[in-house]
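One record is given unchanged without comment:
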Amino acid sequence: MIVVESAGAPAVRAGEALVAGRRLAGRLLPYGPDGERLRFDPVERRFVVPRPEPLLAAGPADPEPWQEAVARLPTGPLLVGPSSAAEAVRGAYRAAAEAALRSGRAVYLLDPEADGIPPDAGAAVVLASWRAGRAAAAFPALRAARAAGLRAAAVFPLIPGWTGEPEALEALADAAREGGAAALAALVPALDGEARRDIVEARSAAEPDPAERFFDLVHHGALEE
């Protein structure tokens, strides 16, 4: 169950960041961390692990406050997202996406729900992040991108002993191709102590009872940035 509360103002992160080789000037966050979903964030390059009894913050459903926030950001491309299962009711993602598109900048839509894509979003590019443990729908946002006629790229973390193995890479490439992605990008995850713990927890949640060798590889192996 998701408990949703309204945020008082748009959540925006300013400053340069990289995602799949693309430089961003800012990020619009329509929702806070969604505690019911295990996902990989391609900007932070780390897993977002579900919390018990999640409290989800939802931004404004009106594009105007988002436009005011966008006007204060440095010049350059914007990223919106990710979305949430609450989008059909809250509409925060669509409002943020509309504001970003109206700015005339390049816009990337991270993991949109179909309800969150504005009808005039033809210039935007969808970034579909990998969902661990979902072989049949490894990049679920590709479905929304295809339905809206938008270009899309699939992104995933390159982790030895898991996604970096030949069979896993082949399966991910197949999933991206079948979903209609124009590109597939592998990202090296963050490797600080907390990020390593989250990698192990994500593997455990996606594939119960992971091998002890994987734990040792992540925490004590030669993983490099």
Remarks:
- The chain has a mean pLDDT of 88.
